[in-house]
Amino acid sequence: MADTTKEGVSRRGFLSWLGLAWTAFSAAMAASGIALARFMFPNVLFEPPMSFKVGRPEEFALGVDERFKPQGVWIVKTTKEIFALSTVCTHLGCTPNWLSAEQKFKCPCHGSGYYVSGVNFEGPTPRPLERFAVFVADDGQVVVDKNRIFQYEKGQWTDPQSHILLS
Amino acid sequence: MIKIIINWLALPYMYVSIAIVLFFLTIRSRKLWTGKAGGLLLLGSILFLAYSLTDEHFRGLVTRPDNVPIVMLLFAVGFFVWFALKQAHENDERVMQGKPLDEVAWKDKVFVWPNLVYTELICMVVATIVLVVWSIYIPAPLEQPANPSSSPNPSKAPWYFLGLQEMLVYFDPWIAGVLLPGFIILGLMATPYIDKNPKGNGYYTFKERKFAITIYLFGFSIMWVLLIINGTFLRGPNWNFFGPYEPWDIHKLVPLNNVNLSEFIYVKFLGTGLPKHWFFREIFGIALVVGYFAVGHWYLAKKLLKRFHDLMGPVRFHLMAFLLLVMVATIAKMYLRWTMNLKYIIGISEFFFNI
Fold this sequence. Notes:
Chain A has one helix spanning 11-39, and strands spanning 51-55, 63-65, 73-77, 81-86, 97-99, 104-106, 113-114, 120-122, 131-136, 142-150, 164-165.
């Protein structure tokens, strides 16, 4: 044959081996890519539920209830309403502390301060704490739904879902 | 009594003002401090430390495993700044007397091998021993596993970031966390292109580079080192200021109700209430910021640093002037917060543009 070299590897033969190698390599990369994509959607997610019951409205004392801080909410009861405040500082995401003597939330990272209502009044934070959706379930318990967020600066705290009015 | 005075002097606007005045005085009277009187500085700081260690709160603060190396670093920073200034001053004196520079006159040269390498070997062994002994006797400051629902109070960044954390108190995250550090990094990278002056290359001098050395040392010692001291020793629970001898009371009440410039002007002075549209609300703040940079550039270029402007050309000069003005403005904003509780000069929270 004309294009046979001294070592016995033809140009056509070399190219077909090269093609095979690249095809195998691409297939392996594609397979690992698919495996990686599958990895992003685990079968089981160990996340705390985004929506949970916290008890009946009359069971709460006036003021801030810190029992659900590990779930990321403060339940605040005033004479007029109950609402759920997010425990994430709107400045850079630390967890503020509730100082009952001073009646304010105070962030330990940069000193942002919020009133009981969640409105910011001191420190560097640009906006109030966020509120989560709350409603009374059929069994009379308050349900906090963290999937829905209400922001004061967007005028969303007037939304009926953002608080439970006490009659 | 002394403790009460020092606690009072540790109020932010007090001690930063004192530090700035002392900084320029020290630079000015470097002849005094780089001589024998430099020992007085060391003696004074050691006496201050020894006296302060009798205070229970201060002792607890300084001997925390986290803070021990910071105290050592502070002494090291002081020593190296002093040493560099001393060598610079000696060279300046030599030039004045018509003698060659110290670096030129120094004929007594030695070889890298073995002189330098042996010294380095000994230093390495000593440093290793010190670190091993230290790690055995001062346990690592480990805490319990991280818990997102409770942040430590106060929550402090690693010591080298405390200056940036302090900035976050006065500026929005995009300025304090992105813009200002960006200016530091880009500004340092741009320095050799902005400053082409070959004087001071390879030898110590102060007189030939007064402006450059003073501005650099100001940025380093006041805006970096002092803010680290501030974050380490003076910031306590709830990120309040505490004097060095003041116990960290978690219930310390500091009135910090922040007020924007627009509220100062429209509510307090004019008494008209805030305009509806953000542009009219913030027009004074925008005018202030734009005016500050415009007047600042003009004043530096035409009056204060005219010589540099002619020497460097407009592009280099205005780059330098901009970085300088940003540095001054950063401190100015901190003063406004400390003295007037001013929150934002421009506060357009409609699209998160707050200065």
